[in-house]
UniProtKB/TrEMBL annotation:
Keyword annotations of the record: Membrane, Transmembrane, Transmembrane helix
Name of the protein described by the UniProt record: ADP,ATP carrier protein
Origin species: Symbiodinium microadriaticum (Dinoflagellate)
Coiled-coil annotated residue ranges, if any: none
Organism superkingdom: Eukaryota
Parts of the chain that traverse the membrane: 46-66, 87-106, 112-138, 159-182, 194-214, 235-254, 274-291
């Protein structure tokens, strides 16, 4: 699921109005326009991935925390005990390259769908199916990384059916709820638009949450798998869904507000690539240094009891 939606070109219908009639368009012009805008969407999706990686450095570890609520059925206190800065630092190093894959793909699909005459709900449904089918290995890689589980190629398409149904339902819900709320609230300012956007995300997460629970049930390790009756309890469902949807809504709300400033910063970095590379290298190096230092501390703590036992 993307952090924010880029609008990089008008739809075909808007362009038709600009030209005055359908006759102004022929098959060759359609193809060229679609091709150029799809490539533009991919390029801007890649730029968005830089922004998302920084924001996700804080949001994604929380997603890993929610994964513990979803799959392991932990309490909030138990999940918090398993989270530490080492996990956050390591997961940032996973977030950046996976965002560079996921963002351009979604934007290309989204831009291609904008050239069709289908409704917003159907467009979201098709986008959800295509995106899930193409990006499920990346989604499962990030999921298993956040859980600290072994990553095997055979498991990268695990839980395809519940995931694709969830993403289709989520895509449809975003399109349907987005149009409905825009008509009801009619946001006039950027801040109002961000609030409506956040509520659309929250509502879409709630609507698609039964399939997310189904996905979580499917992803349980075989040796620790809970029975159907133990897993599907109202309190567990309310906890994982409520927290997950709220975190997603807040994260994307903040992301929408920060986007103009972040885009200005990255526009500067495009003109000064050396500065951008230096900042990126410093961030990655800092995360590795901190996470490596914590690993050494943990190893030292483990060795101390062993040394004491040998002395006795």
């Amino acid at each position: 699921m993307i952090l924010f939606r880029l609008v990089v070109a008008p739809t075909k219908m808007a362009m038709l109005e600009l030209h005055g009639s359908d006759e102004a368009w022929n098959d060759e012009e359609d193809a060229l326009c679609l091709q150029s805008n799809v490539f533009a969407a991919g390029a801007q999706g890649a730029t968005a991935a830089f922004v998302a990686a920084i924001l996700s450095a804080m949001a994604e570890p929380l997603a890993g925390w929610v994964n513990r609520l979803l799959v392991k059925r932990m309490t909030v206190g138990e999940a918090l005990k398993e989270m530490n800065f080492k996990l956050m630092a390591n997961f940032f190093l996973t977030t950046f390259p996976t965002n560079m894959l996921k963002f351009p793909v979604f934007e290309i699909i989204n831009m291609a769908m904008s050239f069709t005459a289908v409704s917003a709900g159907l467009s979201g449904t098709i986008s959800g199916f295509l995106f899930c089918t193409a990006m499920l290995p990346v989604t499962n890689y990030r999921f298993r990384k956040s859980m600290g589980w072994e990553i095997k190629p055979a498991l990268l398409y695990q839980a395809y059916l519940p995931t694709v149904v969830r993403d289709i339902l989520y895509g449809w819900a975003r399109g349907f709820v987005g149009v409905a709320l825009a008509k009801v609230f009619q946001p006039q300012t950027f801040l109002q638009d961000a609030f409506v956007f956040a509520f659309v995300i929250w509502a879409a997460c709630i609507i698609s949450s039964p399939c997310n629970e189904w996905r979580g049930y499917t992803l349980q390790p075989k040796d620790k798998k809970l029975s159907f009756g133990e897993y599907f309890k109202p309190v567990n469902y309310a906890r994982s869904t409520g927290i997950g949807a709220t975190i997603m809504g807040i994260s994307l709300f903040v992301g929408r507000l920060i986007t103009p400033f972040a885009e200005s910063a990255f526009a500067y970095l495009k003109g000064h690539p050396v500065v951008g590379v230096a900042i990126l290298a410093a961030c990655i190096g800092g995360f590795k240094l901190i996470s490596g230092g914590e690993e050494e501390e943990e190893e030292a703590k483990t060795e101390e009891p062993a040394a004491a036992t040998e002395e006795k």
